[in-house]
Amino acid sequence: MYEEFYGFSERPFQLTPDPAFYFESITHRKALSYLGYGLNQGEGFVVITGEVGAGKSTLVAHLKQKLDDRRMTVGEVVTSALDGEEMIHVAARSFGLDVDGGDKASALAAIEQFLHEEARQGRRVLLIVDEAQNLSIGALEELRMLSNFQLGSHPLLQTLLLGQPEFKHLLAQSDELEQLRQRVIAAHHLEAMQPGEMEPYVSHRLEHAGWTGNPEFASGVWPRLHKATHGIPRKVNQVMNRLLLMGSLEEQAVLEVDMLDAVIEEMAVDASADDGSADPRVRPDRNLPASDAIARARTQAAPPAAMSKADGEARQKGLLDAQIEAIEGAFAERDKQMVSLRSEVQKLAATRADGGEMPGDLGDRLAAIEARLDEQERSLRHVLAMMIDYFESASTREAA
């Protein structure tokens, strides 16, 4: 797609987290400082929160690259709504422990033995728990109990909790989590990037993909980009993907503000269409104890009994087939308009060769053809953008 037109070695604005593209904004630099301090303590909990798409996963991927795997063993958990017993088994599996059945005591014993063995080998153990806002109070309490494992006076496990803003509020307000709060030794909330960070962020990602100045960007693009995305990295990536796609389709070497405005308008239309058909995101009720809130959210989010996995796959396949058919139709219509344009041009050339008068409505006829071509261009660009979004969301689901 656009990476070929502009000569990039890879797509610079993919949505899946990639530590190679890590950009150290002001807020990410602060987060790394807190993480460094917390990890140096070697105990308790470190908490990083932020909005969806703020860059938590990319930050952690970058952190993992800096860790020495000869001295640190890392387990990772991406949570759904887990209760306390499920949390123990998932934690055990994150460290590669083979825990059969549903025996919580056996799982705890396996984790404790593993932690002691790692300590004897001179390695510390870190458990990273992503999407912590999905955890019940019971699951969080089990994580706190795991932090009690010690070898003499030496703590054996440290935990990094990543969550959305509601987890920050839950942790601060829940009376049931007082003991966990006392064990949080470092915490940071990832803010959005500042307006002045838009150009450096985009340039950083482009340069990593081999950008040498093509395309150029009008100076007015950066404040408009920040206003549209509020400085959220994932939203910036989404908009930049669309803008570069439009630039490549229109063969533009300079991306102007009006092109960015057109992209933002297209995305707003797509979002409003999605709002009419997609189910609203289910979030736990923060006024309830977390365990009850998660249970309620599970009930609200449960799919209809008649919707089987096969039905879901069929629906996805149907969507993909429909989008492929739309692209084929768009190309076919574009070809038809090109044939019409060639026919008009050939007629005009023949008239001129015969010495005849040029039609009085020549300008109107050419303007009408140009308008039809522009409309087909917009339709084609829109369908291609939909396909990109589909494949990116599919790859994100597979990565998760």
TrEMBL record:
Source organism superkingdom: Bacteria
Domain AAA+ ATPase, residue spans: 42-216
PANTHER family from the UniProt entry: GENERAL SECRETION PATHWAY PROTEIN A-RELATED, PHOSPHORIBULOKINASE _ URIDINE KINASE FAMILY
NCBIfam families: pepcterm_ATPase
Protein name as it appears in the record: XrtA-associated ATPase
